[in-house]
Design a protein that fits this description.
six-stranded mixed beta sheet; 160 residues; binds tetrahydrodeoxyuridine; 6 strands; alpha+beta; Cytidine Deaminase, domain 2
């Protein structure tokens, strides 16, 4: 038997204003997108903003459905739109903000597993890391230097 170990490192900033200006603007775009989420069932609104190598920012939010599994998370809404519109651009950063109308969310809320897998696809495709920033509605912001850090032992195309 051998043991495989991976270390994940997150940097946590106490508040958004501690981050560089470009990240603050990106997160503000995510927060704005969160405000337009369609989440009548969970009451949990998420916004995501993707920064591309051509400087374009693409935003998205979660879209729910009466048939629950048909809904889509904010991160995938944003990243799929970005990749469909700008297939040749690299994805540099993604900022995510999650909130709820039922309770306070002041801790960083990381992307779900399915969204990590989706973001990972583009990181592997472009062979350049995607910085991931995530927060609740308020409070601390966590930063991961690369998506791979959030999804160790990734499933990728080499298995196909
Ligand atoms: N959600 C996201 O948009 N992103 C995530 O990473 C986690 C969950 C959405 C899906 C659903 O609309 C609601 O949050 C509750 O799970």
């Amino acid at each position: 038997m051998k043991v495989l170990k991976r270390e994940s490192v997150l940097f946590v900033y106490v508040a958004l204003d501690r981050l560089p200006k470009d990240v603050v603007h990106l997160m503000e775009a995510a927060i704005k997108a969160r405000g337009k989420a369609y989440a009548p069932y969970s009451k949990f609104q998420v916004g995501a903003a993707v920064l591309l190598s051509n400087n374009v920012v693409v935003t998205g939010n979660n879209q729910e459905n009466a048939s629950y599994p048909s809904g889509l998370c904010a991160e995938r809404t944003a990243i799929y739109y970005a990749a469909s519109q700008y297939p040749k651009e690299n994805i540099l950063k993604i900022a995510i903000s999650a909130g709820s109308t039922k309770k306070q969310t002041s801790r960083p809320i990381p992307p779900c597993g399915a969204c990590r897998q989706a973001i990972s696809e583009y990181e592997l495709k472009q062979k350049k890391p995607i910085e991931v920033y995530f927060m609740g509605a308020t409070g601390a912001v966590a930063k991961s230097d690369s998506l791979s850090n959030l999804l160790p032992f990734t499933f990728d195309k080499s298995e196909l």
